[in-house]
Amino acid sequence: MTVVSVQSPGTVVLIRPHRFTPNSQTADDNTFQPLVDLSNLNEHHHTAHGEVTVVAETLRANGITVHLFEDEHEGRPDSVFPNNWFSTHAGGHIAVYPMRTPNRRTERRQDILELLKQNYRVQDVIDYSGLEFDGIYLEGTGAMVLDHVSRVAYVARSQRADPVALERFCTNFGYEPLVFDAVDDSGIPIYHTNVMMCVGTRFALIGLELMTSRDRRDEVVERLTSSGRTVIELSSAQIKEFCGNAIELEGDRGRILALSRRAFTALTERQRETLEESCRLVPVDVPTIELAGGSIRCMLAGIHLDRRRHQDRWPTSAPAPFSALGARQ
């Protein structure tokens, strides 16, 4: 029997966009975001909407609870990536993050936070978004890859991961920061840590060759292996195929690794075999979403909160609140 892991949530928040398009405001530092012909936006809108629908259906078929929210707003091109603006943590804690680009700041949604408060035991919401006025940013579990077991926050240094915000988060939530420099083949800093690193219960996927300091690379490997994990090194080419942008989840038949079909194809047979020693691989096609420079991991905000009992949420004689918010559970 598989033991439930605190690393792997069994519930996620997923946003289905109706007006998806690659975000021109984020292209300056996101080298995973290719130049795209935007002459036929309706096609992007339609295909991205369908890809998210398939992701939701696939996860639910594997026993994952999916809170699916709709987004019909035209000014939120990256709303499909909610893990950047909030994260949840055991003990009933939620963090809300400062975002670098103005149009991403509008992704923060009170209805999502209210649904979490109504359905899960939430003790507090710590909102760091005010740091945006000082030019300080920390884009959630895109900027940080969190080891929930050993309480380590792995962070590739970038303009989306300010050390001031990182220190505040780690102090408030009880993580140790482990910061390193990582660049792509052109020497450009990796914009989000989660495109080059995935920490599961018994494994870690990581693009070690992107890290510029050998000493820091060795330290990261030591920290990961000392927690009992097998380190699976990804090449620079595999990182470009989003092999690092995966997430381990707890399904009804054990742990799964959700990743894109593109990433799955780029893994070697040996890497897949190693991963399958601890989880099932569940690939999903999201080629349109990946035009925005992120993949499956970026699309999923994991919920690490304890669910409320029904009687704790509202009296049985009263109607359930937020029935018109567009969230489908």
Automatic annotation (TrEMBL):
Alphabetized SUPFAM superfamilies for the sequence: Pentein (SSF55909)
Pfam families: DDAH_eukar (PF19420)
Chain segments carrying region Disordered: 310-329
Superkingdom of origin organism: Bacteria
InterPro entries listed in its UniProt record: Amdntrnsf_FN0238
UniProt xrefs under PANTHER family: AMIDINOTRANSFERASE (PTHR43224:SF1)
Alphabetical list of NCBIfam families matching this protein: citrull_CtlX
Protein name per its UniProtKB record: Amidinotransferase
Protein source organism: Cryobacterium glucosi
